[in-house]
Amino acid sequence: MRLRHKPWASEKISDNPQFVIANPEEKKGKWDDVFGNGNPIHIEVGTGKGQFVTEMARANPEINYIGIELYESVIVTALDRLIEADLPNVKLLNVDARNLTEYFASGEVSRVYLNFSDPWPKNRHEKRRLTHESFLKLYEDILIKSGEIHFKTDNQGLFEYSLKSFSWYGLHLKFLSLDLHKSDFEGNIMTEYEEKFSAKGQRIYRVEAQYQNQ
Fold this sequence. Notes:
33% of the residues lie in helices and 21% in strands. By secondary structure, it is α/β, with parallel strands linked by helices. The chain has a seven-stranded mixed β-sheet with strand order 3-2-1-4-5-7-6, with helices on both faces. Strand 1 (41-45), helix 3 and strand 2 form a beta-alpha-beta unit. The longest helix has 14 residues, at 72-85. The termini are far apart.
């Protein structure tokens, strides 16, 4: 995906610390204080333009959401969406997901969402996939006991790889759909990519994977 450079993005992010949390490593173990309550915390790794995390927060006010996005030029769109929605239960982090344990304490997160992650199809890039075992270890380190990963993609190859990765790591597959929009799953909130791909008739794959014996 080619990103259009937005030279003003950094300043806009800095001007909105109530939405995009600066120095999140200082919040490690203290996210309840950030939100002002002890509600469960769900994070979306690779939140993109923020449609999913914003609409999930709107639909579930009893849950706190944190959208994580590496690229400034992308997260500013999520920021615009959040400014308009002005929801108290969603924050954004402009950070690298490889450093998740620097931002969250053990057991501080209840669920991880991975939506339409970059498939990194070349074998030499396997470790960059967000369902690689190295990332599964990161998620395990910050999740509660029996925490879950909810994963959606349009990419069959990445889905098959992820199922193998989850299984090899010892996760329990609770829900699996090979064609989400033709299933009986209720309450699905779509991302921007999901709307685009499903409009073209592409299958959407989804799985819920739960950690065991933590």
